[in-house]
Amino acid sequence: MASHESIINSLYQFLNDHLVTNKLQYTSLRTLNQNQWISIDTIKKLTELYLENNFFYYDRKIYHLSQGTGPNSFLFSDLLANIYLYTYDKFIATELKLTTEFYGR
């Protein structure tokens, strides 16, 4: 499992590489006609808060995850995992420049 710090670093790097501005535009569910903005730092802080407080209940016991994303939110966990793996995909594509082998994920 990946450490929370490496997941956060991958997310931060991904957002910095792919956003033109330092903010991400979204539409709030309360105000469907108004677009709002959230900064990369706010996304990073909210993700840190989520990862630090990641608890789940299994077999009559409460567990705290100190690594990885856990089973609480499959959509968000899957998104974070794909962003984390994107870092390695990017490294393989740019740094190693595979010439005789094929790589796919």
Low-confidence stretches: none
| Helix segment tally | 3
Q: Assembly state here?
A: single chain
Rg estimate, integer Å: 17 Å
List the strand order in the largest sheet. Answer: 1-2
In percent terms, what proportion of residues is strand? 15-25%
Main β-sheet: number of strands, strand sense, barrel status? 2 strands, antiparallel
Question: Could you describe the 3D structure shown?
Answer:
The chain is an alpha+beta fold and 105 residues long. The protein has one domain. The strands form two sheets. Strands 1-2 form a two-stranded antiparallel sheet. The chain is flat and about 50 Å long.
Salient structural properties:
alpha+beta; single chain; about 100 residues; flat; two-stranded antiparallel ribbon
Summarize the structure.
The chain has 105 residues and is α+β, with helices and mostly antiparallel strands. The chain has helices at 4-18, 40-52, 74-96, and strands at residues 23-27, 35-39, 55-58, 61-64.
Draw up the topology in text.
Layout: H1 4-18, E1 23-27, E2 35-39, H2 40-52, E3 55-58, E4 61-64, H3 74-96
Helix pairs in contact: 1-2, 1-3
